[in-house]
Amino acid sequence: MTQAPPKSVNMRIDGHEVSVPEGSTILDACRKLAVETPTFCWAENLTPVNVCRICVVELEGARTLVPACSRKAEPGMSIRTDSARVRLSRKVVLELLGSSVDMSLSETFAKLKSQYGADPDRFGPRAPRAAAGEREAAEPGHHEVPDGSAAASVGQPVKVDNELFVRDYEKCMLCYKCVEACGTDAQNTFAIAVAGRGFDARISTEFNASLPDSACVFCGNCVGVCPTGALMFKSESDLRERGEWDESKQTVTDTICGYCGVGCQLTLRVQDNRIVRVTSPSDHSVTGGHLCIKGRFGSTFVEGDR
Amino acid sequence: MLWGSNARETHPIFFHHVLKAVKRGARLYVVDPRKTSTADWARAWLPVEVGSDIALANAFAHAILAESLEDREFIGRATSGFEEYQKVVERYSPEAMRSVTGVDPDAIRLAARDYATAKNAMICWTLGITEHHNAVDNVLALINLGLLTGHVGKWGSGLNPLRGQNNVQGGGDSGALPHKLPGFQDVEDDEVRSRFERVWGRRIPPKNGWHLTQMFDAMEHGKLTTLYVIGENPAQSEANANHCLKLLRGLEFLVVQDIMMTKTAELADVVLPASASFCEAEGTVTNSERRVQRVRKAVEPPGEARDDIEILSELSKRLEVDIGFSTARAAFDEMRMLSPMHRGMTYERLEALGGIQWPCPDETHPGTPFLHGRLQENPVRGPRAKFHPTEHAPPVDRVDAQFPIRLTTGRRLDSYNTGVQSGGFESPLRRGETLDLSEDDARKLSVLDGERVRVVSRRGSVEAPVRVDPSLRPGLAFMTFHFPEEVDTNLLTIDATDPKSGTAEFKASAIRVEKL
User: Fold this and answer.
1) Quick one: which of A274, A265, A271, A272 has its CA closest to A296?
2) For chain A, domain boundaries
3) For residue A143, is pLDDT > 90?
4) Helix or strand or coil: residue B509?
5) What's the whole-model pTM score?
């Protein structure tokens, strides 16, 4: 088990020298210096996909801004994380996201919006919601040119097709985290992928089947990684709909799953003595943040008729 | 090598780790009578006949020895009994075992070669190995392969039973076995007993107790008349359920302590409602990696339900043998004092390290990621590891003209045992109990997918809908016991048990299917 310690890479971030192990990313180096670098699509238990572009930084000598989350640290790199160019880029990313996607449940978004002075409303009022099935029916290339009176949006009705979790794609920012967790980064079930092109791009099951008719095994690892609340426990969604979701009344407790002998750590969020959400810490040695259907959704028997 | 394990469905998060390794180039072999979703990820699936695992393991050994791929240095330095073992496996050539195991000799040779020559190799098994009348021999046959190739006692190698319940490991570790005190210390060892007696201030009966099967035997012979059942549902989980129910009903006094009003609880004279240990109580559980982890109270138990340890404490006072504590932590601290392998595990350290793998002899010890490292030392510390030659013995319930189909049982992804817990959530994957049959058998019996049939064994019969399952070969059927209210599969299963472990042969019954 003994391995040679990895070589280190020396670089500069905002003028400060920093040394990180070979293989680290610019994001790792930023975090080592406590330089705040925002992310949406990055997670420590998933492979970076570089799609949200909020983590971009300026690399001296590079033509374009680079994503800090995936770009590997190289010797002698000089990075600027708070230049006017970086700030402008992040501001526009936030405005485009905020104008087209319901980011209301993302605390990160709210914080960044004020930090970068982003004004998502400047593209006009959000276009009305699409009817159910309308976005899924869009054909590539067949688009009407928008008249500019309203900001295009991904608005659409919530998909409720099972008792475990709901899909509110009006809140989907296409960060791909759910696809990664369903695919090669954890579950390897491949029930969902991105379908469509351009603004029609969306998370979809095969042939847009309902989840119970798809390959989905309801591990809920997609729910676990979703940063915007687009994928949500039905228990949580119902409480929110009734206006009863109240984080001030909630407790969060770590324990171990009561089913098989693998020993997955569960983080139980409880409101009014009911388990309303189950996650697992992404740095846990057993789970890496991922659970199965029993661990994720199977604890509710304690609330039943006993 | 996953042997008798459908980990993709029964240990899904463990299998995530397997998949990571497979993507990095690890070779996965799956030994299972069914072509499971686990087998779908394998380099090769070895379609072993139900109950022929010893024949297959011995054929592996034969193939390894035929190509001189055994680890001679390790065998000579760290093991004993090799010659005797070699003599037995000589009779188990892959060719000769073809008709017994149903596995192609070339497939055996390929897998055996890969296993023997891998830098690190691991065999993991589940109930496919242990739910047989010769369960212990099955396990020994796999251990022999580890010893033959030296794949034990080092990082990334070894022999691992994947535990089926969240604390089945911890239960055994803490003495819930008829012949062991906490820390696997022998009840019949006078020195061990006297250490416990000094702390407990009581005499401990100097003889091994009965395991589950022996308890049922004792009930049958009127030697056991009072039973106290904690967190178990034998009325539905035991094989040959009719017989088991008769014995439970014949008891003079039955106490059941459970989180639910189970079928067993319905038979009880006294029911003690308990809190759910994983989220309504404090304590520890121990997983398959021997990692002792903290469980914590997140919700209040309903009604009059109380913590198990509190109930035991109160009971001990009424019986005038006060155990002297009523919290899980105090019980754990007492165990640390008496069980050397737990000694270094304070609650503070368990919290700080996110669990500790035993043995952990003192408070500076980091825990032990793998066992038997001493076998890799030169010279070996302590006794040598012994080969235990084992012989093939087919399932007790013979397949014949009257009962022509082999029924094996198991779990599905979204359900668990008798459904006491997993019945509490609405799984979109759930389709109720079915008799899963191969396409071939369904055709021969002229039954259609979804058609209700009667399933008959030598012990009982049930009605169930048929599901045609392409993962099954002709002559093999599959059921679970997740839905005993709908279909009580254990009316069919056989209570032939392993003499040492007491486990029944749930994996091998003989049935026939009758049209309704």
Assistant:
1) A265
2) 8-82, 86-123, 154-303
3) no
4) strand
5) 0.95
DSSP, collapsed to helix, strand or coil, labels residue B464 as: strand
Give the count of alpha carbons within 13 A of A277, CB side only. 23
Classify domain B2-162 by CATH number: 3.40.228.10
| Residue with the larger pLDDT of the pair A29 and A142 | A29
| Cβ of residue A176 closer than 8 Å to a chain B Cβ | no
Neighbours of B391 (CB within 10 A): 13
pLDDT tens digit sequence for A8-44: 999 999 999 999 999 999 999 999 999 999 999 999 9
Q: What is the pLDDT of residue B275?
A: 96
Q: Is A295 on the interface with B (CB under 8 A)?
A: yes
pLDDT in tens, A65-108: 999 999 999 999 999 999 999 999 999 999 999 999 999 999 99
Indicate the angle between helix axes B328-338 and B190-200, nearest 10 degrees.
140
**Candidate CATH numbers 1.10.287.990, 3.40.50.720, 3.30.70.20, 3.40.50.300; the one for domain A154-303:** 3.30.70.20
Enter the ipTM.
0.95
Query: Is pLDDT above 80 for A306?
Result: no
Chain B residues closer than 8 Å to A264 by CB: 13
- pLDDT grade for B421, boundaries at 50, 70 and 90: confident
Contacts of A273 in chain B (CB under 8 A): 299-300
CA dist B214 and B50 (Å) reads 25
Helix (H, G, I), strand (E, B) or coil at A167: strand
Indicate yes or no: CB of B288 within 8 angstroms of CB of A286: no
CA–CA separation, A293 vs B5, rounded Å? 19
Best residue in A292, A296, A300, A303 for a mutation probing chain B (most B CBs within 10 Å): A292
Q: What's the mean pLDDT in B437-446? A: 97
Per-residue model confidence (pLDDT) at position A3:
61
Tokens at A283, concatenated: 């740095």
How close A209 comes to chain B (CA, Å)? 14
* Residue of A184, A212, A294 lying closest to B422 (CB–CB): A294
Comparing CA positions, the residue from B185, B213, B211, B219 lying closest to residue B199 is: B185
Q: According to the model, what pLDDT value does residue A300 have?
A: 84
Which chain B residues are within 8 Å of A258, Cβ to Cβ?
166, 276-279, 421
- Position of tokens 């579950």? A187
Q: Do A294 and B355 touch (CB under 8 A)?
A: no
Residue type, A257: C
Contacts with A255 from chain B: Cβ below 8 Å: 278-279, 294-296, 298
Mean pLDDT score, B245-272 = 96
Phi, psi of B217 (to 5 degrees): -60, -45
Say if the Cβ atoms of A163 and B422 lie within 8 Å: no
Choose, out of B2, B9, B16, B417, the residue to mutate when testing the contact with A (most A CBs < 10 Å): B16
Q: Do domains A8-82 and A154-303 have the same CATH topology?
A: no
| Residues A261, B164: C-beta atoms closer than 8 Å | yes
Q: Do A262 and B280 touch (CB under 8 A)?
A: no
Whether residues A256 and B426 touch (CB distance < 8 A) is answered with no
In total, the C-beta contacts within 8 angstroms joining chain A to chain B are: 172
Judge: A302–B354 Cβ closer than 8 Å, yes or no: no
CATH of domain A8-82: 3.10.20.740
Domain B165-209+274-364 CATH assignment equals 3.40.50.740: yes
- For chain B, give the mean pLDDT: 96
B423: chain A residues, CB-CB within 8 Å? 301
- Looking at the DSSP bridge assignments, the partners of residue B181 are B185
Q: Is A294 within 8 Å of B414 when comparing Cβ atoms?
A: yes
Looking at 2.40.40.20, 1.10.8.80, 3.40.50.300, 1.20.1180.10, the CATH number of the domain B405-515 comes to 2.40.40.20
Taking CB atoms and an 8 Å limit, are B287 and A258 in contact across chains?
no
Q: What would the mean pLDDT of A261-282 be, rounded to a whole number?
A: 96
Q: Please name the residues in contact with A213: beta carbons below 8 A apart, sequence gap of 6 or more.
A: none
